[in-house]
């Protein structure tokens, strides 16, 4: 339930999100609830606990784009928090569009690209227990964004989004990632990438041997084609070795 005051007598009343009309229990006035002027507060529960989020990080760190051994990084800190964002529903040229903007100034990566599935939102009131999770308070107003948003406002809400911040150490340097605490998506601005130098070196060697073999093959067929095949085999073998080592 959401609480607001009657515009005629000032008495408080409660209504369910989605209601358009409500009769005041005190003066009997029929009230139209304009959702473009009412602020709703929602929260998305965590579905991933602190142990599972480390497994999510390890799987991400073992990906093909990551430096070899990144999955074995030393985890220095895992912090759970509810981060506030504004969710704007706008009518843009007759189509409903949803826009999500941070409600808190932050340097954490990815928090400008959050996607909020409406079905996961719960009303954030005193009945919702956040436990030991830190709830971050907004320091940006809606006006920061509203004047630059396209279309006509239909709804706006503050949504407290569940995130983990993981700080980890790899080869003497410290990095951080943000993990969506409901879907497991990872956001980061920088991570140690896998070097492409070994792969480029073996590719150039393969190309050279194959090209030389093909050229020689036009003159001395047997030795030339053997050199070509040897170059291809060297490339396959070298690629396998590089993949295992790096």
Task: Name its key features.
single chain; 246 residues; eight-stranded mixed β-sheet; two-stranded antiparallel sheet
Strand-residue fraction? 25-35%
Class computed from helices, strands and strand pairing: alpha+beta
Tally of individual helices: 4
Low-confidence stretches: 238-243
- Name the helicity range: 25-40%
* Quaternary structure: single chain
- Count of strand segments: 12
- Count the domains: 3
| Silhouette | elongated
> End-to-end span in angstroms?
56 Å
Rg (C-alpha, Å): 28 Å
Would you tell me the overall average pLDDT?
78
Main beta sheet, described?
Answer: 8 strands, mixed
Topology as a string of helices (H) and strands (E): EEEEEHEEEEHEEEHH
Describe the protein's architecture and organization:
- With 246 residues, the chain is an alpha+beta fold.
- It folds into three domains: 32 residues, no CATH class; 148 residues, no CATH class; 49 residues.
- The protein contains four helices and twelve strands, in the order E-E-E-E-E-H-E-E-E-E-H-E-E-E-H-H.
- The strands form three sheets. Strands 5, 6, 7, 8, 9, 10, 11 and 12 form an eight-stranded mixed beta sheet that branches.
- Strand 10 and strand 11 form a beta hairpin.
- Helix 3 runs antiparallel to helix 4.
- The relative contact order is 0.16.
- About 2% of the residues have low confidence.
Précis, in short:
This protein is an alpha+beta fold and 246 residues long. The protein has helices spanning 50-61, 143-146, 197-217, 221-245; strands at 2-5, 12-15, 21-23, 30-32, 39-43, 74-92, 95-102, 122-123, 134-135, 152-170, 173-180, 186-187. The chain has four helices and twelve strands, in the order E-E-E-E-E-H-E-E-E-E-H-E-E-E-H-H.
């Amino acid at each position: 339930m959401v609480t607001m005051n009657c515009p005629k007598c000032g008495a408080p009343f409660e209504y369910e999100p989605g209601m358009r009309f409500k009769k005041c229990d005190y003066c009997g006035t029929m009230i139209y609830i304009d959702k473009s002027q009412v602020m709703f507060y929602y929260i998305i529960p965590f579905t991933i606990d602190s142990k599972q989020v480390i497994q999510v990080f390890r799987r991400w760190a073992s990906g093909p784009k990551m430096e070899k051994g990144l999955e074995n990084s030393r985890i220095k800190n895992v912090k759970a928090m509810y981060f506030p964002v504004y969710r704007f529903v706008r009518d843009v040229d007759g189509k409903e569009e949803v826009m999500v903007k941070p409600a808190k100034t932050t340097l954490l990566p990815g928090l400008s690209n959050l996607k909020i599935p409406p079905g996961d939102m719960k009303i954030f009131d005193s009945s919702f227990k956040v436990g030991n999770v830190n709830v971050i308070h907004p320091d940006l107003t809606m006006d920061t964004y509203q004047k630059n948003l396209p279309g006509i406002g239909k709804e706006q809400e503050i949504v407290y989004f569940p995130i983990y911040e993981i700080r980890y150490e790899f080869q003497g340097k410290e990095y951080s990632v943000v993990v969506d605490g409901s879907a497991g998506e990872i956001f980061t601005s920088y991570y140690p990438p896998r070097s492409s130098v070994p792969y480029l070196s073996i590719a150039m060697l393969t190309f050279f041997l194959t090209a030389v073999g093909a050229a020689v093959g036009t003159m001395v067929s047997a030795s030339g084609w053997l050199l070509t095949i040897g170059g291809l085999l060297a490339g396959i073998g070298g690629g396998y070795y590089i993949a295992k080592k790096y």
